[in-house]
Specification:
eight-stranded mixed β-sheet; globular; homodimer; four-stranded parallel β-sheet
Chain lengths: 435, 435
């Protein structure tokens, strides 16, 4: 999609720039030029040079950096609520994988990803790290929608509709990486599924290619107690030479103190998926201890099939509440911490911290506005507290990516949601028929 | 408020009657006459006798019983987000109680309660159990809004703006109870604050009066580890003769197996407040074990000062997710269980199970509609799963109490929200100035 550049002035009741931490600017405006943040000014001190810009007035709104969903499976949005209230192994082996085997193809991935992108744009997420079969189809959906993301190259031992062998996954992935090299919104990563589905040879090949191409490795790791009962997969990942700042380790609900030290020493990045981990009874990632050890912890929704939405504000609230109750420390993870997990920490994980994750002059204008006008937001003492503990994605009114407004006053400006709905309805019928 | 009776026919894509458990009716209609549910019919089989009724068409909506918030402090909505990320003792002693001491009066309670009622009506709650100072002011707000509730008579040892001594609380409470005897929407209960703030004499007097008047006792109990560290307050409550089906025990995050048996033997009702317990790091109520022992567990948000909203759909999701992760059992508390906690279990706790809590002919028409039309709800395989795991209060489009539509297509039909906002803004300024 070739979206128009739209320079503008965004004047908001509150702006939360994320950096510096915890700051709330009252009655400020953002100058957006050429897709970037030009300046942050008190609204009553906007100079003549900016006065002619089209103005977006947000008198009851909080504007902050676009949220970064650091782990998901966009295409699986077509399986939202398909099978619930089950353990991970039962859920995967007896429900999700069988239906995927019957219906997943390129068009499933494109349509499911577009559905996810629409939901994410409409709930304040402007960038997502994704991993699923047919990554070029996910990339097409993201690109067509003007949505930013890191698309993982899936690698698994078992054959599927996209690739037959580990080697074939890697070969097709390299081709895909090559095709994306110059894309301004899409980056790539290797995404070996998990230690229990990828061989040593597969991991070795991934490590070599990831180092050569300088791209991340996005890996489900220590997701459940079952996975870590008889051995510590993290040890194997270490012995395979994969522990580095390149590694994005997803879930990590089972960690000893010495493993946390190990992760800190190697600058490994963690993605915490609290709602998926709670819903599948997987366990609790020790985000407070990780943070205290200096480990970067970002936040992800996981797929809609195990969440069952892609609402990052809700996820941030769950992250804060779960951390408090599980550590018996109400002060450990604050609203400010949760917001940082959902923004700048995600940017760091993706290696994009100079481009997105906060509102700073020169950064890309990836922004959201949240409407605080409803009775459920009154009164307002601490806007960041409201953003995390009161708001949910349904209160997001605007989303910008690269300065392009993709969601304006709760309406999609570019996506043809009606046509998308028709395709999703057809998928629902097909999936029901295949069940 | 004297609201008009409005007979109508509500035709919905899905109706979830709550009883029978887990049932979803597709393309059905509800006949509402004289504030009650007259019939539940397939929409294509509506008889001539109903065709002339005004029709509410809800083609993309799920209609279910109005949600019942079994524990809250409505007036404290004026302190929403006033002090966050703190332990309960610090939060109460150093923040909430001092500011309450400076600002709470009858008008604070009326305005704060009205703000809470507006939020609850707009997020699908149609009945709430409340406890706070100046209960007549809360009752006035509920009554003026046409909102249903159980208003607690607060009893504490320390003096406050409403009453000076325990005895005075009880005396004023009896007067209040007397004034409410014939109200069709309001019931009363005694609400001793907690074992650590009420004397044996106070509890004895409460027990005698509650038995004589046949009203419940609504009590914060075993909320935190601190409270139960040196003794078991539940033992004291038992020895004071208060364990019975009349007791509504709130929080109960600290329970041994034998205490659960004790509660079950005495038919004590429990209110689980997962988000408040998480946010204040209080602990986790063992709802699965309680349910397996036959104990009735309802759901509450607690006050907006510790939540920070009154969204019962979000609370139901948190209840399900927290139960799963804390018991390591993804199957224990299902979406259906969570919905029942938020509806019929609340009705049982209030002694109103023949009147509200499910959609059955003859029951009061306390209903809500949730709009499933957004992209974030697609596709729909299991509507009850979507209601709990996808929807939040922001997706509620309609609320009826006693057959009166108080919220229609996301607009308040009776409440003057503009005037309420003005009063709330004034309270915000006053509270900030007093801080």
């Amino acid at each position: 999609m070739n979206l128009p550049v739209s320079d503008c002035l965004i004047s908001a009741r509150w702006i939360v720039p994320v950096i510096p931490s915890g700051v709330v600017l009252h009655h400020h405006s953002l100058v957006i030029r050429n897709g970037r943040i030009g300046a942050i000014l008190p609204t009553d001190r906007i100079g003549d040079e900016h006065r002619t810009l089209p103005r977006v007035e947000l008198p009851h709104h909080l504007v902050t950096a676009g949220l970064i969903n650091a782990h998901g499976h966009a295409a699986m949005t077509l399986l939202r609520g398909y099978a619930d209230d089950l353990e991970l192994d039962d859920w995967l082996n007896n429900h999700i994988w069988p239906v995927e085997g019957r219906v997943v193809d390129k068009s499933f991935v494109y349509d499911g990803s577009m559905l996810a992108v629409a939901e994410m744009i409409g709930t304040g997420t402007t960038c997502a790290a994704d991993t699923y079969f047919f990554p070029p189809a996910t990339a097409d959906a993201f690109s067509d929608a003007g949505f930013r993301g890191q698309i993982g190259i899936p690698v698994v031992q078992f054959g599927n509709a996209w690739a037959e062998t580990e080697l074939q996954h890697i070969e097709k992935g390299l081709e895909f990486h090559d095709s994306m090299k110059h894309h301004d919104l899409i980056t790539t990563a290797f995404s070996p599924h998990a230690p229990y589905t990828v061989s040593d040879a597969g991991f070795n090949s991934i490590r070599q290619h990831a180092d050569a191409l300088d791209i991340p490795v996005h890996l489900h790791l220590h997701e459940t107690r079952n996975e870590t009962e008889h051995s510590r997969p993290l040890q194997r990942i270490q012995s395979l030479g994969l522990l580095s700042s390149r590694l994005q380790a997803i879930h990590m609900t089972q960690l000893t103190t010495s493993e946390i030290d190990l992760l800190a020493r190697h600058d490994v990045n963690i993605v915490h998926c609290p709602e998926s981990n709670m819903k599948l009874a997987s366990g609790i990632c020790p985000v407070l201890a990780l943070g205290e050890s200096g480990v970067n912890v970002a936040l992800g929704t996981d797929g809609a099939a195990s969440n069952n939405n892609l609402d990052m504000l809700e996820e941030a609230r769950s992250a804060a509440l779960l951390a408090k109750v599980s550590t018996r420390d109400a002060t450990g993870i604050s609203a400010v911490d949760a917001l940082e997990m959902a923004t700048i920490n995600g940017a760091r994980l993706l290696g994009l911290e100079s481009e997105i994750g906060s509102i700073e002059p020169g950064k890309s204008a990836d922004l959201i506005a949240v409407d605080f006008s409803g009775v459920g937001f009154q009164p307002v003492y601490h806007p960041i507290s409201h953003l995390i503990y009161v708001a949910s994605g349904a209160h997001v009114s605007h989303s910008w990516i690269n300065g392009q407004c993709l969601y304006h006053d709760r309406c999609f400006t570019h996506l043809d949601v009606g046509a998308l709905r028709t395709r999703v309805d057809a998928w629902q019928e097909k999936i029901k028929a295949e069940s």
